[in-house]
């Protein structure tokens, strides 16, 4: 399967979302409601279903998880280095640092399925399951002084709750009844398609009025540094070809739109984060195929 065949359907959905948002008169309320349905209902269903069924054979997937989590930790450290390096204004760093390590799960699961079908989806879901708590804690921590506390914010996060619930369900050896499983599977398929359309609908390139150097730094960390770290560490510890592909693709993903939701809800600089997400998503049209070409 060619690189264009793998990535084109997902980027096509992003373009469809971009065009729909600008060519229809459905209004902001429609898009906001759709975003809430995906974020609070459909995507948690996908995460729970995927993590509850993912093979937790740490003898074969332990190295993959190590590579992904090491890269995320490097992303967090590199992101926080921006504060002394750029000395940004109020709430710029706190809002934007999450874009150095958070990831777009919709794109990740879609690309993983195109790479290796259900096996690729399971591996990506496993990484997401372990990465969501770390990334959410790091993102909330930067903004937490504007809210009621770190634990309170984490306890309300639907993605974190769904992931933890799915992993516990899996570890307990429980089985999802077939009817419920089919329902969750269809909700998950809808989450990926609608999620990619919402990525396109949310593209905004007008929010960068200051801290341009720091913005470029965050984007470079996410799209270049993290996948490079994953590639180097993965080759060093001897990941299989498929696991190396999944690890690098995971680390090369642009930031999810939920980063904007978090910043806006917690008193951060929403337009700045919206620009970072949009610019990173558009640049990933170039960087994702290059990384895939390197490990394909």
Q: How would you describe the overall organization of this protein?
A:
This protein is an all-alpha fold and 296 residues long. The chain has a single domain, classed as Na+/H+ antiporter like fold (Up-down Bundle), CATH 1.20.1530.20. Helix content is 79%, strand content 0%. The protein contains 13 helices and no strands. Helix 6 (105-143) packs across helix 8, helix 6 packs across helix 11 (241-251) and helix 10 packs parallel to helix 13. It starts with a helix and ends with a helix. 52% of the residues are buried.
Q: Give helix and strand order, one letter per element, not per position.
A: HHHHHHHHHHHHH
Main β-sheet, in a few words?
none
Please mark out the parts with pLDDT under 50 across 5 or more consecutive residues, or reply none: none
Q: Which CATH first-tier class would you pick? A: Mainly Alpha
Find the count of extended strands (DSSP E, 2+ residues): 0
The number of domains: 1
- What is the helix fraction of residues, given as a range? over 70%
How many angstroms does the end-to-end distance come to?
10 Å
Provide the CATH architecture.
Answer: Up-down Bundle
> β content, as a range?
under 5%
Q: What is the radius of gyration computed over CA atoms, rounded to a whole number of angstroms? A: 18 Å
User: What is the number of helical segments per DSSP (H or I, 4+ residues)?
Assistant: 13
Overall pLDDT score: 87
What is the CATH topology classification name?
Na+/H+ antiporter like fold
Approximate shape = globular
Class from secondary-structure proportions: mainly alpha
């Amino acid at each position: 399967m060619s690189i264009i065949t793998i990535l084109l359907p997902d980027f096509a959905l992003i373009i469809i979302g971009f065009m729909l948002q600008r060519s229809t008169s459905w209004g902001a309320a429609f898009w906001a409601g759709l975003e809430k349905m995906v974020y609070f209902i459909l995507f948690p269903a996908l995460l729970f279903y995927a993590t509850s069924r993912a093979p937790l054979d740490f003898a074969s997937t332990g190295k993959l998880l190590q590579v992904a989590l090491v890269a995320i930790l490097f992303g967090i450290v590199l992101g926080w280095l921006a504060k002394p390096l750029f000395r940004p204004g109020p709430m710029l760093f706190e809002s934007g640092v999450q874009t150095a390590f958070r990831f777009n799960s919709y794109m990740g699961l879609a690309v993983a399925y195109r790479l290796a079908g259900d096996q690729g989806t399971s591996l990506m879901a496993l990484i997401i399951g372990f990465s969501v708590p770390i990334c959410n804690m790091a993102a909330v921590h930067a903004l937490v002084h504007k809210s009621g506390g770190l634990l309170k914010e984490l306890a309300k996060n639907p993605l974190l709750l769904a992931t933890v619930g799915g992993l516990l369900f899996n570890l307990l050896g429980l089985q999802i009844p077939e009817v419920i499983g089919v329902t969750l599977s269809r909700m998950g398929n809808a989450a990926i398609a609608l999620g990619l359309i919402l990525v396109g609908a949310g593209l905004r390139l007008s929010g960068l009025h200051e801290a341009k150097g720091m913005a470029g730094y965050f984007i470079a960390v996410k799209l270049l540094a993290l996948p490079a770290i994953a590639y180097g560490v993965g080759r060093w510890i001897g990941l299989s070809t498929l696991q190396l592909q999944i690890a690098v693709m995971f680390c090369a993903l642009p930031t999810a739109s939920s980063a904007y939701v978090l910043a806006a809800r917690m008193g951060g600089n929403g337009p700045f984060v919206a620009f970072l997400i949009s610019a990173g998503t558009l640049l990933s049209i170039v960087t994702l195929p290059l990384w895939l070409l390197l490990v394909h």
